[in-house]
Amino acid sequence: MVSNEEHGLKILDFWGENSGPMTWRLTLAEVRHVLGLLVDFKLEAIAAVKLYKNYIIIKGCSEKKRPSPPYILWMKDQRNEIKKVNPEAGFKEISTMLGVKWKTVTAEEKKPYEGIYHAEKEAYLQVIAKEKHETESMRLLEDEQKQRTAMELLEQYMQFKQEAEKDGKKNKKEKDPLKPKHPMSAYFLFTNDRRAALAAENKNFLEVPKITFEEWKNMTEEQKRPYEEMAKKNKEQYALEMEAYKQKKDEEAGHFMKEEEDHMKVQKQEALQLLKKKEKIENIIKFFSSVSI
């Protein structure tokens, strides 16, 4: 972990000065997370900038360290010498002495340190440019993959929809096994009663309808009444069952529509959350692009 002395500044806790000093060693991803928290807690953007500039030490954000200014390079060379002359002096006192001495350093004496600084700065900027290019390339690749995945899902959905429509047309022709059966007429009830007896007389299936039709035609109203009453009763029962069946189908259709609506609402919420997340990440990336690391 980096020390406060090395960087010459006090790192404060995220929640304020009351928690005491801390040193944070954060990656770029972790800084994005912290800034995301700031957005969630509705802090002003200026607070995020202040937190970033004054209170957070960034580590692991690039492959190369940020170049030290000429003064810092010179100070590293001079610190031990000042320390030997003033062994009792503390960090603050030595820093003050170095600041006073730096003012007396000539432009010629500063040139070696300025040369080192410019060389390191050039190398640092090249690394930053490379990282930025790689990050942008990865973002474009990710966007392309997302678009390809979306197109594949859309194609699968359209294929599924077409197959479902075909299956739906087939199912319309098929009878619903749960649908109440249409009641038989009085004549067919009579035919069912007679079929077993006629089969016992070895009458084939073609002869049975002819025989029962002639018998039914010659029956009196009194003889037909039991079958007609049974047919009437069955018809009334069928009407009740059909009413219950239609009601159930309507409820199922309503339930299905509600599920579809709920599913669409969930998808819409997820899409909005993804959009907000994307906008937040884009804002953070813009923020880091505008702030010197």
List keywords for this structure.
9 helices; 293 residues; 2 strands; disordered N terminus; mainly alpha; 75% helix; DNA Binding (I), subunit A; rod-shaped; two-stranded antiparallel ribbon; 3 domains
Number of domains: 3
Which structural category fits the helices and strands?
A: mainly alpha
Strand order of the largest sheet: 1-2
Query: What summary fits the major beta sheet?
Result: 2 strands, antiparallel
CATH topology group of the largest domain: DNA Binding (I), subunit A
Strand/helix succession:
HEEHHHHHHHH
Number of strands: 2
Q: Could you walk me through the main structural features you see in this protein, from its secondary elements to its overall organization?
A:
There is one protein chain. By secondary structure, the chain is mainly α. It has three domains: 1-61, no CATH class; 66-174, Orthogonal Bundle (DNA Binding (I), subunit A); 186-282. It contains nine helices and two strands; from the N terminus they run αββαααααααα. The chain has helices spanning 4-7, 28-40, 45-55, 70-85, 91-102, 107-173, 186-200, 207-218, 221-290; strands at residues 12-13, 16-21. Strands 1-2 form a two-stranded antiparallel sheet. The longest helix has 70 residues, at 221-290. The protein is rod-shaped. The two termini are 19 Å apart. Mean pLDDT is 73; it is low at 1-25 and 37-63. It comes from Glycine soja (Wild soybean). Residues 64-132, 180-246 form the HMG box domain. Keywords: Coiled coil, DNA-binding, Nucleus. Residues 162-183 are annotated as: Disordered. Residues 64-132, 180-246 bind DNA.
